[in-house]
């Protein structure tokens, strides 16, 4: 665990400014910042560490500011894990990685926390079928750490399926996924410092919420108009107004403690601790511990050192103050962007100009298709000798072999037969691989040079990568884990349990103990892979985010 | 339109019969096989038959995925027949398909897709193997079962409606450098993964050897006990220490 001192040393930069607030304008609001090498934007979902909690909390950044005393604060609207609200779930079925966004009014909706409590970005994808929600692609869903489509009302303690125009005070479009066009410029251009924070609140408040199709620029133009209409009142008043329009129809104004937030109220642990214990069921540990205990045993310590980099979403630092998930509900405000998924800019527009759609299909000169071909394994072996084989990486894992052949034909004008490498439980989810056998050695070399020196872009910012495969494994040779008992006594004993070729082991044998050790190893390697791929996914996303074009 | 569809359909049937006479190795039911042939003909009669059969086929395929169980940690000794016998107790096994290992080391355990008759049977297998270590063709390493995923299939149909666009980036394109970086990263990550796999296999080998030792030690112990009991030294010692040993 990193100590407090180290926290201070972590790289930190403010991003775009939003406006100022507070009585003496000493509070500076921001819409983005960089912390420990990660860019955060308003409405990003983040992990928050709390000491003593085995799992980090997940929340949505709904306000970011630096107060007069230079302390950095964020306000987060919470997501609930099913285990936290299990008391109210009853027989509601929950998806494996589903979480619930807090809504309504009351304790547990949102809190102000020190910015340093952020432990990393969390990829939360909204799967709501709502027409205003930009539907996530399957790839996005696979990359998601969590999904959500329902909300949990902290006031009435109920699960809600529908989302109104505001969710816990946050405009619903910031709750939904960003559209791809918005992804690139996540945060709309703001009028610089001169304008006040209040204006935005009022503008948003006055604007009839338009569905997601509102372009990013729109709120800004509206802002100009509405500002004039709203000269009256202080920041406080307007914020109260903003607060009024809550998800629930009751227009009960709430004391806007906005000022106190930004000026002197750092999150007080004392407060939250007693409140939440009563309101939120803290059965985090009661997670699905199915099967043998052994399977749930892997811990951080089991993971090889090379994986414990901070790229993982596993919280590795402890902040000075821990986030409080309870306590005072601050006055919600609305902002204007959605940022759920950290995404690279989409290449669509650009591709539109000079790309080739592959739907046309390639001329099928390969008549041999009408006849049975020798098994692919044999062909691989021959091709390896002839040097007519290549491995492709970074394909969309969803592609099928035929589509890979199409790509090669359209991009390289070479005929080939391709085979997507079938996924197993240890394949990377980020890069689909394919084995491609070309007709000639020359063709293979041409393809290799072109792909290495040039750059063939596939959709979703995937440049095609090729490599010469190392020798193919051939037939499976050894298998670890099956033992033959050559001892008579023991053999007889064990055989009583093992009647046929397959069986379930019973818990009172040596065999069972050994099986448990295998389960443990399997679970451990699972967690290694999970961490590795999580780290790799993060690296890729970070790099993709640096694409200049959209 | 109708006429054309019909005409197209007829051609398909004749061709289907032609192909049918050739031996085809897959075990798909007849209807599906016919669809496959139809798909192969799609370039010839592109716009008519395509959409319908594609969608249909994809839906049928998705159903198949749902009732299929993915197994790994399998020994090379596990064959079609072995898998079928092992899983008979949970329901009717429709097909077994092993996932070929093209890129991993040859020590990798095998993996297979087992299609059951119903989704329920498939779920049952997954639950059962989660609760108890289930062993096929040897002990003590248990197999593992998971729901199958679309990408695990070799013969998966194209996803209907997907068009792929690709484009060569020019060297002066501002994104060229980024793309090259991504390419390097992808390669690096592939190396990372293969390193990880090696580590995993090394761990497995270690556990295998350790278990070998344990088993030997146990066998020795049992041998010793038996010897002591049979040659009378146990009784001798019993009288020596004044302990009565019960015969059993």
UniProtKB/TrEMBL annotation, chain A:
BAH domain sequence ranges: 38-163
GO function terms (MF aspect): chromatin binding; RNA binding
Listed CDD domains: RRM_SF
One of the Pfam families matching this protein, by short name: BAH
Entries under InterPro entries matching the protein: BAH_dom, BAH_sf, RBD_domain_sf
Organism domain of life: Eukaryota
Composition-biased stretches (Basic and acidic residues): 244-253, 260-293, 318-337
Region annotated Disordered, chain positions: 244-370
Listed name of the protein: Protein ANTI-SILENCING 1
Source species of the chain: Heracleum sosnowskyi
UniProtKB/TrEMBL annotation, chain B:
Signal peptide: none
Keywords: RNA-binding
GO molecular function terms listed in the Swiss-Prot or TrEMBL record: RNA binding
UniProt cross-references to Pfam families, sorted A to Z: RRM_1 (PF00076)
Residue ranges annotated for the RRM domain, each copy included: 67-150
InterPro entries: Epigenetic_reg_gene_expr, Nucleotide-bd_a/b_plait_sf, RBD_domain_sf, RRM_dom
Top-level taxon in the UniProt lineage: Eukaryota
PANTHER family hit by this protein: RNA-BINDING (RRM/RBD/RNP MOTIFS) FAMILY PROTEIN (PTHR36309), RNA-BINDING (RRM_RBD_RNP MOTIFS) FAMILY PROTEIN (PTHR36309:SF1)
Protein known as: Nucleotide-binding alpha-beta plait domain-containing protein
Naturally occurring in which organism (per UniProt): Heracleum sosnowskyi
